[in-house]
Amino acid sequence: xxxxxxxxxxxxxxxxxxxxxxxxxxxxxxxxxxxxxxxxxxxxxxxxxxxxxxxxxxxxxxxxxxxxxxxxxxxxxxxxxxxxxxxxxxxxxxxxxxxxxxxxxxxxxxxxxxxxxxxxxxxxxxxxxxxxxxxxxxxxxxxxxxxxxxxxxxxxxxxxxxxxxxxxxxxxxxxxxxxxxxxxxxxxxxxxxxxxxxxxxxxxxxxxxxxxxxxxxxxxxxxxxxxxxxxxxxxxxxxxxxxxxxxxxxxxxxxxxxxxxxxxxxxxxxxxxxxxxxxxxxxxxxxxxxxxxxxxxxxxxxxxxxxxxxxxxxxxxxxxxxxxxxxxxxxxxxxxxxxxxxxxxxxxxxxxxxxxxxxxxxxxxxxxxxxxxxxxxxxxxxxxxxxxxxxxxxxxxxxxxxxxxxxxxxxxxxxxxxxxxxxxxxxxxxxxxxxxxxxxxxxxxxxxxxxxxxxxxxxxxxxxxxxxxxxxxxxxxxxxxxxxxxxxxxxxxxxxxxxxxxxxxxxxxxxxxxxxxxxxxxxxxxxxxxxxxxxxxxxxxxxxxxxxxxxxxxxxxxxxxxxxxxxxxxxxxxxxxxxxxxxxxxxxxxxx
Length: 592
What we know:
The chain has 592 residues and is mainly α. It is built from 18 helices and 14 strands.
């Protein structure tokens, strides 16, 4: 060993060899890093807060704040309930696993490793339990918010006036209660499986589970704990089998929807058997607490798997193949009749009145005496005419025709079929694509193009008519994206034949405060929304301008038709979209 005095100058390597020096970062660098991190964090949360605030303003502007807050409240309730429930359940089980851990372990290498881990984490054990339980609770609880609609239907359930023939249960049970009940059971089973795995890992770390010990691999206390958890899992499986019985009324195994011969005579008995087997395994797990080993519960679970495979899968498949398929016409008739009756009731056509009538021969004189229906026969196909309408009436690159619809209007005192298309804004065709042009000047489409469906010109073209549109501006459309700011000090592009165009309704967010302008600028990442002097306290910003997106956001619980269509009412262009309350949970009924 050489003394330090014997070392050559500048280090052991002699002259020219330098030992690298690692300097601590200066306070200035640390301060800069902290500031940058803080700014990024603020921007991240600012974007989320601005989006939330803009959504609140948008719903309030449409007088639909109750929808937004109602849905948000339901999501928060679900996330809080399931997260807190999972947190408490996991924390209690981790606490139990720590409390029943053996105080001392044999002096083996494996056990000494366990003891070192326990000693290293002794002071932070409580914090570790809380942190792990909180993390898992959030991971499992937050996704539950997506079930808000089933939760609201469960809370506000109402009975139907009719039941179903298999279990005699009210149809309202299937529509309002069953979906959320199935989710709760499924979620609880998944959470219990994860908690059991984590608890087992804690028992291993604590030394309560010692695979290397041939005499006692699991301590009696850990055995009780894990047996109770496993018994809870088998009880939840029994509950799942019980709910699955009701799902048979929506089975798609056979020729029609609903519980058919195989479901009633094979699958249903199998599910009842599986419920009994699950309860039996639960009893075995609890009884085995006072017994040595795990042989009996393992045999019970093995039998459970075999019964599930044979009775739940193989037996119904055999019945379907060799009993039902060769005799479908006789085996399935009673169940098909149930399907027909349920479908008629679900569609509201179970009380249709039938009227028999006879037809007489129609003569030319009869036709001439009443030829109004013939005069209204459609000669123009809306699919083929869409391109023709676009070519004839597009006028400018910043207008477009996206669809052609058939409606009825009074023309010359007679109701006639009319082809109608909205002349919508084409954002891709806007000239001079500055921010002002795209969002302040070219803000709307203009009017409609219309022609009687039963009239053509000599050269086969549509005979266009005027539907007396006095306010042609169209600020919302079919597929219209982006935002527009109206009522600014910048004049909007006027529609043909109109001196000026201004927005006079209440479909936008008023930009009348400093806070709103900041929130909008952050939300869209556009400084002009804050800094432009063209925006005044009277200005409004139009968001969600696609008709379908707009109604889906306002009423997400409705099912909408895919084709909105424009109509002219009192000189204004309005959009109509058909909406329905629907459910695919009506037992035995076919779905549309």
